[in-house]
Amino acid sequence: MPGCAWFQPVPEVPLKKATAEQLTGRLQERGKTIQTMKGLFRAQVTGSVMPISQRVEGAVYYRRPETLRLQGFNHLGGKLFEFSQNRTHYRLDLPAEGKRYAGLLEELKEAKIGRLLQLSRWAVGGVVGDGSSAGSLRTALSEDGDRYRLDVFRTAPENRLLRRLWFERRTLQVVEEERMRDDGEVEASMTFEDYRVVASAPAMAAPAGQETGRTAPMPFKITVVDRVSSGSMVLTFHEIVLNPTLKPEELGLAVMMEQSSHANPGG
Hints:
Elements: H1 20-33, E1 36-46, E2 55-63, E3 67-73, E4 79-85, E5 89-94, E6 99-104, H2 114-128, E7 137-144, E8 147-154, E9 160-168, E10 174-180, E11 186-199, E12 215-226, E13 232-242, H3 248-251, H4 253-263
Antiparallel strand pairs: 1-2, 1-13, 2-3, 3-4, 4-5, 5-6, 7-8, 8-9, 9-10, 10-11, 11-12, 12-13
């Protein structure tokens, strides 16, 4: 049907130019924009990273810099786990098993569910921006087809590759990330999809120098592949709320742990 407007080609979005400093600045800006976050999600897990269920309905509450609470439920609403952390410590409750773990964050791997929680923490960090692009780090940028690849190195005490991030060049959004082990091998890889624009909650006072009601594109689907255990997790958000005023009961034990650590900095 010649001349039919239904079959007009969609204009192709041109590839954007960016420098390593500009892409790093985008990561840092996301970290400044998102001070708190809460959301509802579904996690579908395969492999050996999830010892208690293959499908989890969950809720996440986050407050920068590192206050995090995760809750997991089965399809009947029964609680599978509750995880809380602050900058240095964590607490994990497994009601079905009648077990509780608590201690330093680096000791989390000793818990049976610790690997899944580590992957979940990385996934949440990829959504909100975890601030690991600053400090004693250097970056190297290269073109990879219709993507940019940003390599992030730790410069002190050693020049070691920490992460690789791929940015889609039409949107400059992060679409893939790799976390590296100390030996240089890939520990976990993540893909970020289904970006949607989310507005900040109006009740949250904006940080100094920022506009109220700002919007940010957020990935609603995160796929994490564990290169250590060959397991994987697909995290699909039903809802994301940016910069809400979180109540103490929403952060739960994370707030109590945070207050305790400030009161006893050596404990």
